[in-house]
Amino acid sequence: MGTGIVQLLAFGTFVFFLTFVVYIYYAFDYVRYLMNEKCKCSEDLRRDIIAIGTMISLFLFIILLFTIIIIPILISTLTNLFVKIQDFESEVEEVIKNPVKSIRNTPGRLFKTTKDIGSFVKDTATKITKAKKRR
Predict the structure, then answer these.
(1) 83-105, pLDDT tens digit by residue?
(2) How confident is the model at residue 117 (pLDDT cuts 50, 70, 90)?
(3) Cα–Cα distance measured from residue 23 to residue 37, given in angstroms and rounded to the nearest whole number
(4) What are the two backbone dihedrals, phi and then psi, of residue 98, each rounded to the nearest 5 degrees?
(5) Do the Cβ atoms of 30 and 50 come closer than 8 Å?
(6) Which residues contact 35 (CB under 8 A, 6 or more apart)?
(7) Do residues 7 and 13 touch, judged by C-beta distance below 8 A?
(8) Are 42 and 34 in contact (CB under 8 A)?
(9) Are 59 and 89 in contact (CB under 8 A)?
(10) Alpha-carbon distance 98 to 93, whole Å?
(11) 8 Å CB contact between 47 and 55
C-alpha cells in the first residue's frame, strides 16, 4: 500500500483512540452522576454493567498503550545498554592486553570527548536561542 493509505490509517487510528478516551470519560462521568443523584431509575444492574464495562475498557486501553509505547522503548533501551556493555568489555580487555597502547591513545580520546561535549553544548545553545526567538 502507498504512504497515503498508511497515513490515512494512522490518522483514523488516532481519531479512534481520541474518541475512545472521550467515551471513557463521559461514561465514568455519567455513572458518577447517576450515583450522586440517587436516581431511582438507575439502581438496577444496568448502571453497574456500564461502570464495569467502562473499567474493563479502560484497563484494556492502558494495557494497549503499555504494549505499544512502553515495552518497545524499554526493549530498545535494554538493547542499547547491552551493546554499550559489550563495547565497554572489549575496551577493558584491550586495556588489559595492551596498556601502553591505551595510555598512548588517552589524549586523543580525551580530545574527542571534549570536542563532542563542546558540539553538544553549542547545538543545545543554538536550539534554546531559536526557541526564545520564536516566543
Answers:
(1) 899 888 988 888 888 888 888 88
(2) very high
(3) 21
(4) -140, 80
(5) yes
(6) 47
(7) no
(8) yes
(9) no
(10) 9
(11) no
Q: Contacts for 40-45 with beta carbons within 8 Å, 24 or more apart?
A: none
**Calpha distance 92→45 (Å, rounded):** 67
Q: What is the DSSP string of the chain?
A: --HHHHHHHHHHHHHHHHHHHHHHHHHHHHHHHHHHHT-GGG-SHHHHHHHHHHHHHHHHHHHHHIIIIIHHHHHHHHHHHHHHHHHHHHHHHHHHH-HHHHHHHHHHHHHHHHHHHHHHHHHHHHHHHHHHHH-
> Crossing angle, helix 3-37 and helix 45-65, to 10 degrees?
140
- Residue 98 CA neighbour count, 13 Å, CB half: 8
Joined together, the cell numbers standing for residue 44 give: 438496577
Residues in the chain: 135
Q: What pTM value is reported for the model?
A: 0.48
